[in-house]
Records
---
Amino acid sequence: MSTFIPTRIDAVTVYRRGALVTRVATIAEAATCGDLIRIGELPLSLEDRSVRVRICGGPGLVAADVSLGLDVAVVDPSLPPVESVELRAARRREQAVADRIEHLKEQLKRVGAEIAVPRPAGARGEAPPPSPYAGRRAVAAFRQEVFAELEAELREASVEHRELREALAHLEARDREASNARQAERHEMRKTALVRIDRRAGAVGPREVRIEYMIPGARWAPAYTVTFDRAMSRATLALRAVVAQRSGEDWSRVKMTLSTADAQRWTELPELQSVRIGRRQPAPARRGWRPPPVGAEALYADYDRFVASQPVSSRAPAPTEEIEEAYDEPEAAEYGYAEDDDEEALDDLMEAAPPREHYATATAVVAKEEAKKRKSAGRREEGAGGPPPGAVFGGMPPPAPSAAPMPMSASMAMPMAPPAAFAPQAARARGGGLLSRLASAGGGGPSMDTGAYPRAGAFAPAEPEQEEDPSALLAYGDLRMPAAGASRRGHLVLIRRQERVRELIVAREAQVVTEVIAVLDQAQSTANTISGRLPPRHVLPDSVGGFDYAYVAEGEVEVIADGEYHAIPLLAREGPVAMVHVVVPREGCDVFRVATFKNPLDAPLLAGPVDVYVGGDYLLTSGLPLAAGRGEVRLGLGVEQAIKVSRNTHYAEESAGLIGGSLLLKHRIAIDVANRLERPVDVEVRERIPALVEGEDEISVEVGGVEPAWERYEPEEYDLKGGQRWRVQVAAGATQRLRASYTVKISAKKELVGGNRREV
């Protein structure tokens, strides 16, 4: 008997796509806890192979094994209902009005049908009787009156139906935006984990059970908020993120970690190759598995001796003997299912047989029932001239009258997959069906040859085993070890997806398994579907230079499972900021504010939108470029209107040389920067002078007087030749003057392309 322990979601790590959820449960006393604990209410969308369980808090208890199953969901009164009372009432009203509209349309159709008022036939040789003009007018008047009433009522109903549909859409949207974590209905399923506990010495006191599992589809994107003080000298950088998930469970008050890594990625392990001198040899073929160990059969020596030492009478009866005895039994009342006394006998056999022999005993009884059906069918055929056309016996065509009893095929020897004609009617009418009861009593059982099932060769010629694809053996989570009595014992055998689902559920009917697979596929598809679009300016995370980083939220956050993106806070750091005003007067006189501060994190700041506030007032939303960890961050804040810049130029041409063979093109630049703010500001004025092409000998550029001195400007983002810049501090209310001149010397017989004047 397993002990159910409630759990809560403690932490979530959201990767580039997908999330790792950690649930926490508490064992009150390790010394008295059971050997099996059951953790329920797990989402259907979780990946089975990702489940991990560990017990923390001290020695003595170890999670020795964990298996997954399907269970009925527990109704949580704290969650909202699947559909609110208001929403259900709106659906009923909308459906009632829609039915009334259909009824009115049908009435109009009937009224519009032609109603003939024929003229009566008169006697031969007499004048024709008068036409029933009054009756026809009465019918037309009645039809017109009814038409008017029905059309008026239909218009009113259509208007009401449109309003009800709008109200219903509003309620559905409000209900959907709240969350998709709702009270489970009684027929819904949830996954459950059954953990086997290994108790050792020192198991005293409380313990904490942590279960981890992956869910698909979760996404996140970074965002930021920068708040400056009024003096623009300090700023607070707040990291935020938008997270979306649709797993079916809300993440309430959880510890959140956001990672740029992939949840699962194939990585080749490095191999050290030997270095040899000689002829090059071809590289050996790489294999994903190792050959089986030598002497594996010796592991089953004790089992073989135990089975051989058992007397034949104590073993399970052979299926062929049961089939022969079945012909001496009285016939059943109706073919197609067993009688109650056979079911009671089956229960006795199943209780008496050991668990691993349940399937052998059950299959023998099934064969016995099939023999009864064929015998009953033969007697009816003698009395009534044969079976009805198209009759089916247990999902098989009826045998020929003179033919021997049909042997059971391999598919009939497997009781977990009943024939299609047998399962839906008889099995559902009789509480799940005989084969269902056999499978549920026999426990789990994959379709491989495990020894718990009778081999198909006992009833039909053995078919050659199909060789498995070697690459499929790399799916370690889908490999099973056959039982000791199986023909392939000692080897790992790959099972199909249907068999994995059969391990989760008790019912073994093929139709039930198909429906369960459809439900699981739907849960996976829903979890992978993020209904909301990524907000503007947001960028999904990626690796930075081949490295991945994690961002841990400092507090507990909440993300509801509605598939929409929700903003959550991560952390906030405060530090000094340097405000620089940049202007390029050659292109325009607008002065742009650029805030420069240091990244307070060891991890890089990913590209994303940033909301800027000054003293609590919203300023603008900009884009933050990728910034290295502990590196410099430059953030543009728009135009500063209180700083005015003007640029004036002067141009002159002079002859040079002994006989005037050269021409001097003199340019002078004058820039005035006026600060209208109440505080001093740092201004960076960028200029550019003509640059010579490499190898040019006939043209020269000479820089004249520059006041104050400038420096070369070479941006990292792009190549710029001839760039120069002034870095000056302008006091509050003051004006700073900048002067520069340069001369271009060319031959007097030539002219620069576009004109000799370089400054406008």
Note: Residues 133-178 form the longest helix (46 residues).
---
Amino acid sequence: MKKFGYILAVTISFLAFNSCSNLYRQEAQTSMQASNIPANSYGSYLAGRIAHYRQDFDAAAEYYMKTAQKDHSNPALLNKTYLMLASQGRISEAAKFAKIAQNNGEKNEFITVILAADSFKQNDYKSSLKEISKSTSPLYKKLISPFINAWSYAGLNQYDKAVAALSKIQNEPGMETLYHFHTGMINDYFDKPEIARKHYEKIVTDKNLDLSVRTLEVICNFYIRNGEKEKASAISGKFAKTVPPVVILQNLDKQIKNANPASTEALISSPQAGLSEAFFNISAIVKHNTEVLDLAHIFVRMAIYENPHNDLARILLANILEMREMYKDAISIYDEIKSTSTAYYIAQYKKAEDLRNLDDYKGSELLLKSLILDYPNDYQSLLDLGDTLRIQEKYKEALKYYNQVIDQYKGIAGGMWQVYYALGITYERLGNWNKAEEMLNKALELNPNNLLVLNYLGYSWLQQNKHQEKAFEYIVSAYNQAPYNSSIIDSLGWAFYRLGMYDYAVTFLEKATDSEPSNAVINDHLGDAYWQSGRKNEARFQWNHALTLKDDSGEINKKILTDKVKNGMTNNIPLNYDKQKIDTIISQINTDGLSVKN
């Protein structure tokens, strides 16, 4: 929902700054008043901090809660306890400690959201209204309270007040989609289909408003239940061909076609389901600002707490966990999604991606092959399976799936450059450089100036002593687009090395090792540059270090590297090149404050 995201994201950033809700920043900036922790609780407190640091949030929540149960007077500890519990979806437990903090005089306004959400879940809508009314910030009142108030009034069967509460966001910049979506849902909940239809159709027909997968699912559900199945099918069919992720929409389209209007139940059948959508909407917007990712994490947990059937909220939660590189936790969330859900495919696809992130390539391969049996024409699964096979050096099998993508999607622009790029790498690994070069040039035709393709082509040419000036130009172009990409920095440093410009080479290769110190190839390259610069002790240090590192590139020959450590290396013979052309290209390099000389 990009079109209304900016104002809310900025607002939530401000709220987060004032709510002390950044779980990581707190850990780094405060000692939690450790000296005030009772001696008999210090062990559990320390265990909580260690678990927190390791991103084992569930264990951290347990240890913090155990400590806080014995010490209700430490505000920092209480704050950490209820936020950590909330981040794990344990909202009712979080509410107990939030209430203690509130009674102790804590002014953190996010407490009111947690307490309101918990009261709401228990159908105690009056308490929910009372809690959220304690918010004094104008921003809370404008952009958070209206949703809680509206659905609380819906729970109390007070239609006029529910609609009036939402009207407060009607004219807020960037909030038009949310206003129509929630007003439509409330009217649907109160069995006022004509008014609901008016608001839903505003979203569907107005090109200035963004239509998310979840919004489309709710609106189509409304049309089916109100005897307009063909309209629902037409809308979903239209977006299934154009809006990613395509497979989710194709599954939705299939479910709509097979739906029986008489037995189709409302997705928003309770106030809790409605408030869940609001929390989900807020989280989806806020997650794009990494500074307040913790808030997105807690809001989506509250969305699932209010409506455990909201599988797209689970997808969002897993995505947030992936942003934190908590891949095992993300997989556990994906595993909660049943095969009957429209979100099942995307959950399994993302699980395969996370298995790769955990270096479980075989597990990822098997899962992707299983998905392709059910979805043989899915572009992304075929491409990812090819990548997974290529990583395992199963190059010939990878070609099969890449070519399957090419055969099925001829004429489709956009992401097809990725397939040709992958094919280029695969053919290169198979030793067929002519075919690899053809594929890489095709990728560049489809996506001119793509830094990945430019870097790969340029580096490969240099390794083959070909097209020196063009190779250098390509690498410099890639570097200027991404001067902090370690692989591209390494390519530029190595290009200078091959040209015999060792001072330049050392400067950029040192920058590359600073960026990625555990990369064997970069350390080997820097050792070579040091040696040619006369810095032989430093060269041997780098080569020795490279020997200790894992190499996934296939470039490192440990026998040669060991020999260099023992005997050094011969003088490098620079490539022949057109000095005027190379000097012109060098003058175009973004040195970004680096001190370079030659």
Note: Residues 1-21, 23-35 have pLDDT under 50 and may be disordered.
---
Amino acid sequence: MADAGAGTERPSGALDTFPKLLGRNARERPDAFALREKEFGIWQSWTWRELETEVRELACGLAELGFERGDRLAIIGDNRPRLYAAMCAAQSIGGIPVPMYQDSVAKELSYVMEHAEARIAVAEDQEQVDKLLELREACPKLEKIVYVDPRGMRQYDLPVLVSYAEVLEKGRERHRRDGAFWDAEVARGKGSDACIILYTSGTTGNPKGVVLLFDNVVEMSRRGAEFENLGPDAEVLAYLPMAWVGDHIFSFAQSYVVGFCVSCPESGATVLDDLREIGPTYFFAPPRIFENLLTTVTIRMEDASRLKRGMFRYFMEVARRAGIPILEGKPVPLRERILYSLGALLVYGPLKNTLGFSRIRVAYTAGEAIGPDIFDFYRALGVNVKQLYGQTESTVYVTMQPDGQIKSDTVGTPAPGVELKINDDGEVLYRSPGVFHEYYRNPEATAQTKTPDGWVHTGDAGFIDDDGHLKIIDRARDVGRLADGTLFAPKYIENKLKFFPQIKEAVAFGDGRDHVAALVNIDLGAVGSWAERNNVAYASYQELAAHPKVLDIVQECVSRVNADLASDAQLAGSQVTRFISLHKELDADDGELTRTRKIRRRFVADRYSELVDALYGGQSTCRTQTEVTFEDGRTGTIEAELRIREVAPVPALARAS
């Protein structure tokens, strides 16, 4: 796979691969920071010159281990500069990095490792090494595991293991012997080579390995950066999984293309603190992150003094009236501008500083629909949040929201270079320079997804409005009909339920049924805070989720969603009339969610079939027993008696209050 596509012939000096872009940055910006990492509370930095040296030594060391052009390099761990360097090191000698989700269990890793046929893996620490050692029998092609962090590894005396430091030393020796090797290998690379293999989340089956070429990734990264006027002064915090295409574009590819600095947090637990310290100018977060941050703000304000609560509510009302027009440069009455400026001094500024959003010039959200109220909340504060729609197969970009054309209910217009069309059945298709080369070792799936003339089936149902903006309704395969023919769009309903801070996840059912029902997960943080303020005692998630007062709160949320649905002529008949508050959180370790926190709908329906049957069987309670996986890998069972709540539908065409 060294030459995965014919491509276009370029001059040998063309900046068409990331190792070549690294060389340019090291020449033109040698002392500018490329990467930062917080370790032991102190920020450590790599300049572009230092990063180039690290990549060269690591690449030469990998070659000494037997890594060859066309080989796949598995990479697993949290966002770390040395793991990002491993990606470029593999690419510089013709290899293909395969990042994997760091919270995957050994069984999930085994599939990717075996399918990618990786002979060498780079692991962050002892935890990841242990998982790779566990799957060696299932992946006999795995020859070497390079570990970065030596803590806890002293007693590991296995031939398969080699430290990152030792590989660097081997690389230095190789470079001393053959100083032309690395430069020659970098020069051999071209845009038509395979750049990376990124595995999909696997919502309906085994993940697919999406092969992206340098031509895909470099070109779309460049177009996306130009669209937002990104420059070398941009700052990014890399905290999303390295195996996800969004992180690869925003935290790796665009950094090399533009030359800006990427910072890696100390750990997953310190992300919010590190976000405040760095104050990024360019930020990406899925809707859940924005929702969680708003939930945190709401909880803090409930605990604040009456004066602070009153001031917050007053100025947020000012922001709702004037904030978005001011952000978009539209005319606003002088009195409102003065009040907004005062609010910025007393409320908005301190709040953005607390969130780490003070310097943001552009922030993206994608992956799921974000609630209009949440979207407008941040924009009213002056944070330029935009929606983006894309896929791994599109190298992220399908549609983007241009400044001045921001809508809360659409995902924007076609990104630069992207063509868009809607099939007769409502499915969204696109064609662009970012279209993936193939699914690795899966020609059948490639042919099903990509047409001979380059159009890609997204699997999403949507339409283009009068302003040329795309609106996504749901996954095409999930859109159905109730027994009476009413349109049923489960994700649309689920997203509306998740707009409320008290609801973390929801799974709606109704296709072929006479009404819509749902399984609901409460948000432990938001509901737990409410319980503390209202003297509601509980000993576990299970107990809190089943508390009658909590069920009342969830029922009120469902009723408000129904009122909203009632105002839509097409969806008025798909209101939720029964629900169950689940006794456990849906969890990726239990197979209920993907590693990107997407619901595995069919798996959930099968696993909780007795609850679904009870929702449609007229029962008021249902007893269930569920197997769960603990953090240490042990399994156990949770038993519960769950109550089913009825919710009255709202008359059609009634408006939400």
Note: The chain is about 40% helix and 20% strand.
